[in-house]
Amino acid sequence: MKFSVSSAELLRSVLTVQKAIPSKAAEAILEDYLFELEGTTLTITASDTEITLRTVLQVADVEQEGRIAVAAKQLTELLKELPDQPLTISNMNENSFSCAWASGESVLPCFNPDDYPVIKSAGGEAWSISLSSQTLAEGIADTVYASSDDDNRPNMNSIFFDIKPDGTTLVASDLQKLICFRTKAVKAACDCSFLLNKRHANVVKSILGKEDEEVKVVFDSKYAVFSFAQTTAICCLVSGKYPDYNSIIPKNNTNVLTISRTQFLNSVRRITVCSPKASNHVKFEMTAGSIEISAQDLGLEIAAHEKVSCSYEGDDLSIGFRANHIIEILSNLSCENVIIRFADKRRSALILPDGDEDAVNKVFGIVMPIMVK
């Protein structure tokens, strides 16, 4: 293998796929990039067998095609230290390859490409959808934080993509809170769905370009393939059934609070300082025109309360929540005002932005209350 390429372009490409290199590889070969040169097209692959990232770039002065596995860490560190300039890469023998630039050369290790695992992908009987990279990035960002951190419950440690003829919903939950991102812009001919591990979702989000572009998603029961521009991400899907989230979305919460998101968020943060560390609970007491937020830790003999002006329509209500759930949801919304709909102190509350009901993309959250004295 021998070719020339811009060092900056090669660096951008390896940094794109680098996120699939495992921190502790089960096999040594997974610590490498797989280079495959065919014509003037160089395909670079990195994988931990659960997620595979692949990108292509055009090179010049090809003298010999071929395949090599190159040490990812050493090559990436070298490219980071080089200013943008032409770089000639050629394998010297089966154990080493050369990176030569105008004023120098580095010899780095390479390995047998045949040892690299065969990358599996979605099969012939697969579904497909298309969506903008902006919508995908927004959907992941708006939901992934709500998923569980419990690796022993992989279906809750994921984002559920629920795709229907009238739109698509991304759902994440840790069973205490639930977040839905709904878009009318992504549809399918029939109902279909898949479960994407949260780490894989974050990797996909991180490699989406700043330019808004079309992303094609092809998936079956085992794999989802995200393709855009020159990059492909192949993710192993989570098996198992996701809970029926529609059944827990409140339908008749008639007590309605409308309040400035930033003001409410800052107040909860202040009061949380005095909440018990174990339960992290705060109490909301709502009457017409105001909400009082309070917390106390009887063990430390500390307490705090703050009254905030708002619009509240409904019965006087006292209800408790884990403060971190409220803070997470409010922090991840971008609206000016939020609406919170309550039923009573025992049933879940619905949190949604105060905005255009006809918006193409919508996000809302559901949070379970806790009993407080």
Quaternary structure of the protein: single chain
Mean pLDDT: 93
Instruction: Classify the secondary structure makeup into a structural class.
Output: alpha+beta
β content, as a range? 35-45%
Spatial shape: elongated
Radius of gyration: 25 Å
The stretches of 5 or more residues where confidence is low (pLDDT under 50) are none
Helix content: 10-25%
Note the gap between the termini.
72 Å
Taking the sheet with the most strands, its summary is:
13 strands, antiparallel
Per DSSP, the total helix count is 6
Strand order of the biggest β-sheet: 5-1-7-8-9-6-2-3-4-17-16-15-10
Number of strands: 26
Provide structural commentary.
With 373 residues, the protein is of the alpha+beta class. Helices cover 17% and strands 45% of the residues. The chain has helices at 7-18, 72-81, 133-143, 198-207, 261-272, 323-331; strands at residues 2-6, 32-38, 41-47, 51-58, 60-64, 66-71, 86-93, 96-101, 104-111, 127-132, 158-164, 167-173, 177-183, 192-197, 214-219, 223-228, 231-236, 255-260, 281-287, 290-297, 302-309, 311-313, 317-322, 337-342, 349-353, 361-367. It has a 13-stranded antiparallel β-sheet. A hairpin with a 2-residue loop joins strand 19 and strand 20 (290-297). The longest helix is centred in the first third of the chain and has 12 residues, at 7-18. The radius of gyration is 25 Å and the shape is elongated. The relative contact order is 0.12.
Please describe the structure with a list of short key phrases separated by commas or semicolons.
373 residues; elongated; nine-stranded antiparallel sheet; alpha+beta
